[in-house]
Design goal:
mainly beta, Metal Binding Protein, Guanine Nucleotide Exchange Factor, Chain A, 2 domains, six-stranded antiparallel β-sheet, 1 helix, 13 strands
């Protein structure tokens, strides 16, 4: 039965490791020590929604520090890579090495960005707009991130 089975309580198992179901997939239980999310956070982070433009906590936020994944706490972006793009969401022209993965969006046109560690939906990445010298814009939902301020500022 290809390694999948159910226990008496209905918990799914993957190759005899307890897991939870996320977006039709299965993650081993030991990798699901995630922060409890609000209903709105689940809508955006798990179900790939979008917060309203110009409404997010970090849209017009300019403190020095690190933006981390709301769900797992992995570092994603440094404040030095944040810029004002006028799009209505926090914009970054660089991610921390290995922090963000890119996937074709379900709409067939855009590129989705997710946290590499936990696959949380962050937003979308756009190239070729000329907004910065790096010619890239990560358009990120504020609700997908937390912020850790620099200690020396």
């Amino acid at each position: 039965m290809n390694g999948l089975r159910k226990c008496r309580q209905g918990t799914r198992w993957f190759f005899n490791v307890p897991c939870i179901e996320l977006l039709g997939g299965c993650l081993p239980e030991e990798k699901t020590d995630f922060k409890k999310l609000t209903t709105e956070e689940v809508r955006v982070i798990v179900h790939k929604g979008t917060e309203a433009p110009f409404s997010g906590e970090f849209y017009a936020f300019w403190e020095g520090g690190t933006y981390v994944c709301k769900r797992c706490g992995a570092p994603l972006y440094r404040s030095e890579s944040k810029f004002e793009s006028g799009c209505g969401w926090p914009s970054f022209d660089d991610e921390l090495p290995g922090a963000v993965k890119r996937l074709p969006d379900a709409d067939g046109g855009r590129t989705e960005i997710q946290c590499t560690k936990c696959s949380a939906h962050l937003g979308h990445v756009f190239t070729g707009e000329g907004s910065t010298k790096k010619n890239i814009r990560h358009c990120v939902n504020s609700v997908s991130m937390d912020f850790v301020p620099d200690k020396n500022r």
